[in-house]
Structure formats: structure tokens, C-alpha cells
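Shift notes (night). Ran D-alanine aminotransferase while the centrifuge was going.
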Amino acid sequence: MEWILSNGEIVKEQDLEISKEDRGYQFGDGIYEVIRVYEGDLFTATEHIDRFYQSAEKIRITVPYTKDVFHKMLHDLVEMNSIDNGQVYVQITRGAAERNHQFPVNVEPVVVGYTKSVERPVAFMEQGVKATLIEDVRWLRCDIKSLNLLGNVMAKQQAYEEGYFEAVLHRGDTVTEGSSSNMYGIKDGVVYTHPATNLILNGITRRVILEICEEFGIKVVEEPFTKQQALEMDEFFMSSTTTEVMPVVEISGHTIGNGTPGKMTRKLQQAFEARIKLGVIS
Ligand SMILES: *Cc1c(COP(=O)(O)O)cnc(C)c1O
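Came back to this:
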């Protein structure tokens, strides 16, 4: 049996009730987080919880608990479902009310969270994946981890249908990020990635990677780079909570480097692994 987080309580899955007029369904009016669980521990939970509150605040939803209480709920959920290696998905919507675009009054937000066992994609991490350039047609508040994911979903589906693991999104000439990941190129020992502006979601994994680079004295340039520059990088990789540091060895049919994960990418993967085990970040 599975336990679900529902509005501050942990309930049996069959007791979860969602309204037909939940604004999450009708407007995508809400935000979410995915947090990784390693050996029963929530990885970088504080950072994910902070971002959950920040995303909610940006769309003027107030999370009805303190961060500490929320953290404990997620921790209890993981424990009750006996998740060893997996993830927590949690979302908050503006609530359920008669359908009108403007915010409803006196309506409580709806929080739902659940867990899932997930293995690390080790084979992909060792061999690298292929990605393809797709125009980024999303809105201009990509810094919010919004439930509105149509732009992301359409891009990912196109990539999938063409046999690619992920979409490398670009606005005109500028590479922004992936459909559910951040993107990085390495040229002459320097790591390039789009700055954390409104055009990308500033990944928690991204922040860990940039910390690792600083620790190792690897130069990072947080500046936009072009599609053409992406194809000419020595190494390329993507990152997210579930894919960690994932080498990209081909972009739109162009081989990156020699078509295998690059040396620096491997080094970053190893350093990331060390963090998971050490649990340096709470
Ligand atoms: C969640 C997400 C990421 C990755 O963020 P992590 O915190 O590292 O999981 C990157 N881009 C988009 C669009 C996302 O939704």
C-alpha cells in the first residue's frame, strides 16, 4: 500500500480526493518539486524546499506550513513508503474553485505529494546520451517550476520520437536548457552554461555542479552560448535531479568530442557521486 501526502496529512492512496475544478487541472495553476532520495535520505532537501516556496511565492500562492513542518512531512512520507533509492514528487495548486481565470477568494491551496522508487540511470551515465536542438517556445518565466509544462512536454516528445534522450532548447541562436534539465558545454577546460535568468530553471543539481567546479578550480562562464558553439564544444553534459551529471555525446547528429563522455564530465560525475555518499549538502 502506498501513502500519499494530501494537504498536510499522510493518507492511503485510495483516500486521496481531487476536485474536478482543481486549478492545477484547469489552468496548470501551481508549482512542483522533484527531490531525489538516496539510501532513504532526501538529497539537497533544504534547497528543493526553498525553491518550492520561492516558486509558490512568484505565482502568489502561500504554502500553508513552515518549511520545517513541510520538510518533516516529506521525510515521513519517504519513511512510511520505505523508499530506499527513489524520489518525492510534490505539487501545490491554487486550490479548487468555480472556473474563472482570476484568483478565487477564500480558497485553500491543494498540496499532493507521493514517492516512487527509481534507480540511478547508470548505463546512460556511463555511455552518454544523444540530444537534439529544438526551438524553445516556452513563456518568459522559466525560473518558476510551474505545472504548466506544455512547451517542455512538446519538445521532449519531439526529441523522443526522433530517438533522442533530451531536447537542447534554444531561443533563436541561444541555447537555454533542456526540457527538464540544465545544459553545459566544456571548451578548452572552461564550463559554459546559461545564466540563471528568467529563461531557465536554476536546477539544484546545477548549483551543486557549480559548487563542485569552484571547489576544483574549474572556470565556469555563466553566459549564453549559441547552437553553433554547442556543436563545437569539446564536451557536453546535462543535469537534473534524476539524471545527475549526464554526458551528451551527440547533438542533432553531430558527434561531440570523440563520441564518448569527456574527461572533465567524468570528473564531475565522480565528484557528484562523492557528494551523494558523503551527503555534504543536507
Ligand atoms: C526541474 C528542472 C530542471 C532541473 O532542476 P533540478 O533541480 O536539478 O532537478 C531543469 N530544467 C527544467 C525546465 C526543470 O523543470
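The chain has two domains: 3-117, 122-275. The radius of gyration is 19 Å.
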